[in-house]
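Table S2 (continued). Query chain:
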Amino acid sequence: MSAFTANPEFLRNARIQLRSGRVIAVAVICLAVSITAWFTFTSHAVPLTRIEDASELLRLILQLQVTVLLIGGGIYELLTVHREKELNTFDYQRVTRLSSFELAIGKLFGAPVLAYLVTFCLVPVGLAAAIRAEFPLGLLLQAYVIILAGSIVFHLLALLISMSLARGVSAVAVLPYLAFVACTSIDYAHTSRVMPETAWTLHILSPYAAGEMFWRGVTQGPVDLFFGASVPHFAVLLMIYATCGGWFLLAIIRNLKRDPAVYQLYSPLQAFGFAIYFTVLMLGFFNWKAPLGQPIFDNSYPAQLRLLGFKTLPPQEVLGMVLANIFWIFAFLGLVLFRNREQVRRRVKNLGARAANLWAAFWPAPYSLAGIVVAGLVVVQLIRVYREPAPGQWSWGLAFLYIGFVALWVARDLLYLQWMGLRRGRHPLAFGALFLIVFYTCAGTILGVLQVSRRPELAPFAAALIPTSLYWLQLPDLAVRYRSWIAALGILALEALLFAFLQRAKLREFLAPAAK
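Corresponding output:
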C-alpha cells in the first residue's frame, strides 16, 4: 500500500482533486443527500412496509454511486492523458523514470479520486438501508465488489481512449463512452410472460448490475447461461471484468510511453487473441436452444395490433445473426491492426524490401479471414449440436457460402481502408471511411429501389457489391443458381485482390527513397 500511495502520478492527481475546501464541500453534500434520501423513503404519508422502503432506498444509493464513479470518474479518465497532450506536458511524463505500469496506475486511480470519495461518503446510508431491509450483507458486499471492479475496467477503457485521442477531439470521445455504458447496461436476458425466452442469456454487464440485485424479495443474484450451463451472474461479471481489464491494461502499458505517432494497441497475435476472446463470449452467451426473432402480432384488430410473442428463428437466420456479430468483431480487429505511414516507414527502415512483400500487401486481412472462417465453422457445429436442423431447413453449402462471403467482405473493405490510409494527405483513413460510407449508401439505395436482392437471378451480382443480399437467399434458389453464387464469391475475392495489389504498389513507393 505504501508503494501505491508513493506513486508520484497518483499523488499529483490527488493533490489537485482533493483540496481541503473541495473535500469538505463533497462531504457536506453527501451528508445532505443521505439525510434527505433516508427521510424521504422512511416517512411516507401512506408508508410502505419497512423492508420495501429500505430496499428502494438501497437501490437508489447504489445507482447514485455507480453514476458518480462510472460516468463521472470515466469522464475524468477520458481527459487525463488528452489534457496533458493539449498542455504539451505529456512528453515530460513519458521520459520520467516511472514505468508504463506505474504511470498508468497513477492515472487510473488518481484522476477519478474525487469520484471515489463521493462513493465512499454514500456507503453509510447504503449500509443502513441494507440492514433495515434485512438483506444479506454478503449480497451487499457483492454489489460493492461489482461497482468497484466494474468501474476500474471502464476507467481502463476510458484511459485507453484518452491515450489514443488526437488533439482537439476530447469532447467527441465522451459520446462513444456514454453509448458503451448504455449498451452494457441493458439486461439482454430479461424475460417476461410475453417473451419467455431471449436470444441472449447475459444480464447487465456494467456496474449498474449492482442495483438490480436488490429488488424486493430477492435473496440471491441473477444467473446467466454459458453454453447452456447455469453460472451466477456475479461470477460471470468478475471473470469478464478481470479478463477485459487485463486486455485494456496490456494495451495501455504497451503504448503509454511510446511516441503517439507509432501507437499500436496490440501486437497482431495479441489482437487476434482479443478478437477470439470476444467471439467466445458472444457464442457462449447466445441462446442456441431458442433464439427468438420475428414478432407475432394479433391481426384481428387492425387498428390496434397486440404483440403475442416471438417465433423462433430458423437455423439459417440464426447463422446470419451470429455471423453479423462476428463480422463486426473481426472488422474491428482489422482496424486495430492498421498501419499508418510512420509505422510503414519504420518497417521499411528495419526490414527493407520485406516490408513490401505479399504478406504486407494483404495486411491486415489474413488475421480477420482466419478468425471469421474458424468462428464460422464453430457456429455451424454449434447449430448442428444444439438445433439439430432438419434437411429441409439446412444446407451445408449455404452455411459455407455465408462464411465465405462474410470473410471476403471484411477482407475487401479492410484492404481498401488500409490502402487509403497509406495515401498522402490529411486524415487519409477518415476520407477512406467516408468514401466507403458513400459507396454503401448509394449502392444500397439503388439496389433497394430496384429490389435486386429479391430477384433470384440478379441477387448474386448484388452480393458481389454488398453481401447483405445473401440474407435473402433461400435453399431452393441456391440449388438452381449455385454457379452464379460461386461466381459472385469469386468476384468478391478479385475485388480484395485488387486492393491488395494497390496496397503493394503503395508500399513500393516507400521503398524508393530508401533505395536512393
